[in-house]
Amino acid sequence: MKTITLFVKEATSEKPIRALEAIIIAMDGVERALVDTADGEVKISFDEKVLGQEQLIERIRQDGFHIV
């Protein structure tokens, strides 16, 4: 299991956080996603045998989120 930390510009209010969490959790290989609403910090734990870090980042970007 690998954990990465990203900062997502839009992840500072309830509606975008819910949308982001739904996108991430729906991906095969993701075990959990925790979002800090204060600064948009997102910690994602995933199985790197199933999902690559770049695939995860690209999916988040495709859904209109901006990684800082």
Automatic annotation (TrEMBL):
<feature type="domain" description="HMA">
    <location>
        <begin position="2"/>
        <end position="68"/>
    </location>
</feature>
<dbReference type="GO" id="GO:0046872">
    <property type="term" value="F:metal ion binding"/>
</dbReference>
<dbReference type="InterPro" id="IPR036163">
    <property type="entry name" value="HMA_dom_sf"/>
</dbReference>
<dbReference type="InterPro" id="IPR006121">
    <property type="entry name" value="HMA_dom"/>
</dbReference>
<protein>
    <submittedName>
        <fullName>Copper chaperone CopZ</fullName>
    </submittedName>
</protein>
